[in-house]
Amino acid sequence: MPLQIVRNDITHMRVDAIVNAANSTLLGGGGVDGSIHQAAGPQLLEACRALGGCETGSAKVTPGYGLPCKIVIHAVGPRWQGGRCGEREKLASCYRTSLALARAHDCRTVAFPLISSGAYGYPKAEALRVAVGVIGDFLLENDMMVYLVIFDRKAYQIGEKLFSDIAAYIDDRYADAHAERADMRMRRVQMAIEQEALRQAMAPRAVSAGSLDDALARMDESFSEMLLRKIGEKGMTDAQCYKRANIDRKLFSKIRSDRGYRPSKPTALAFAIALELPLSETKDLLMKAGFALSRSSKFDIIIEYFIERGNYNIFEINEALFAFDQSLLGA
Description:
This protein has 331 residues and is of the alpha/beta class. The protein has helices at 31-40, 42-49, 87-104, 124-141, 160-173, 177-202, 209-217, 223-233, 238-244, 249-257, 265-274, 279-288, 298-308, 314-323; strands at residues 3-7, 17-22, 59-63, 71-76, 109-112, 145-150.
């Protein structure tokens, strides 16, 4: 999917470009900056010396040298000074400039750290919001795979109030262990019924041409057909829909060309979010893909939380899903 939050060491990311959270001298430092210089080797430092430094909010490019990437984009983020000295705009400028440089160098994949959130003291929840906002806006207009790389899950934070609100929402709706076991038993029974129905349906039997034609004429609308109908009803283009859904263009092409395509649950829900469907219509679309929302699933409850509040920003939803260690929406 176009924006993915991952837990990894950015120096191990096999992408076209990685972004270095550099200081204004570009001569190396601690944290991510030091790790990138160490992994790239001494040639990186020599290349950085030739650049003559960089202003806060801007970025410059060097080759990747010993790193598994073509280029390194050195972005200089702001130091946190209480939020009253233009820190947000300078941080946003780091991401915009870095993405523009990646595009100018024909990069299809780029990995970012959470700039300024370490030694520079930018509050992690706010730094994350800026990163996701700028990257999300860029991806609505550009085709690129962007990774936001978190080295340590403990260093990852969404807003404290949002986290506590979602946690309380889950607690109010999350089934207890007994109900969950009962639900699992019910699923096993339902699965057995479905398997028997499938076995009977596939058993050889005589069917007249007329009855077969009638049965085919009564086939329900498929997931793909319902999705395309909803896109038309919303007055959206295909590109607007799959970009808002955090879905790759190639996958969307497969869905469009195959009436019987069966997406994964996160993909189906991503389209529901992109289309800003209410909960009832989300359930209908999900059912076409063979899924349902369950009160015994944290993933499902978090999706329901955002839909009920009318928040269809898929990147913000994915922030929350990542914080609760759930699968992300998209392909």
